[in-house]
Amino acid sequence: MRYFLHIAFNGNTFRGWQKLPGIVSVQQVIETTLSQIFKEPITIVGCGRTDAQVHASQFFFHFDLGTGFDFDLVFRLNKCLPHEITVYDVILMDGLPHARFDAIQRSYDYYIHHQKDPYLIGLSSYYPMPGVDLRRMQEAANLLTHYNDYGCFCKSPLKYEHTICRVTESQLFTNQNRSMLRFHISSNRFLAGMIRIIMGKLLDIGSGELSVPDFEQYLVKKETPKTIIPVYAQGLYLSKVTYPYLDLPQKSVFGNLILHEVDLPV
Predict the structure, then answer these.
(1) End residue of a domain, out of 65, 93, 121
(2) Does one domain contain both 58 and 131?
(3) Comparing C-alpha atoms, which of 77, 65, 84 is closest to residue 25?
(4) Residue 89 a catalytic site member
């Protein structure tokens, strides 16, 4: 019997999703908790891999059980897991769908605040750049849906069989007084470091250090920039995962609050 779990997590205290020796990861914490609840070893498969300190306002994973259970698993998990991880839904699936390989689209949001704010520490990235040229940044962001090879914006492109990504959404949003910025991007897949590298280049455009035509040349020539400075991890959220058979809304209260605060298209 295969179960999908719908969760969210604050990544600040974790070294990413993936279980690796000697680190505290989201996967490791959840597997340990599930194994204690069911009194047998449980292995889970996530919908993707997030880097250290990256958040997820929506995330799915699956695991298998030989038999069913007659207790409230959502309640038990939320009672046992650390506060940084929340479980919203446990869904019994037909057949053996795959949380990672069956996802047809993933969306990420990257948050920046230009005005120092103690309540946004670890939840948004602080870049004191209130005068950035948002129009030019959006002009560059618009280009992303017209190209499909993103090897130039990847930390380690050679580890992939190919670097083709079908980006379908690429939009910048701001709030009423332009003190915050949100970059929203959707694609069928993402490469290692891709979003944080792109966001770094968009900030270079906004500050006047890089032109839009030069940005486009990376995509045209498929050449990696000489200098790659990814933006901070803390502002990045996996915000939506869509399957052909499962399309649930984001349930994170704070995620929805901040999303609606920074919702004015550039």
Answers:
(1) 93
(2) no
(3) 84
(4) no
Beta bridge partners of 240: 107
Convert 248-257 to b/e letters by CB count within 10 Å (16 or more is b): bebebeebee
Q: Which of 51, 102, 109, 204 is catalytic?
A: 51
Task: Find residue 187's DSSP bridge partners.
Answer: 106, 167
| Closest to 154 (Cα-Cα) out of 163, 167, 166 | 163
176-205 pLDDT tens trace: 889 999 999 999 999 999 999 999 999 999
46 lies in which domain range?
2-93
The CATH number linked to 207 is 3.30.70.660
Which pLDDT score, from 0 to 100, does residue 31 have? 98
Query: Among 71-75, 170-174, 225-229, which is the least confidently predicted range?
Result: 225-229
Half-sphere exposure of 190 (CA within 13 A, CB side): 24
The pTM (predicted TM-score) of the whole model is 0.94
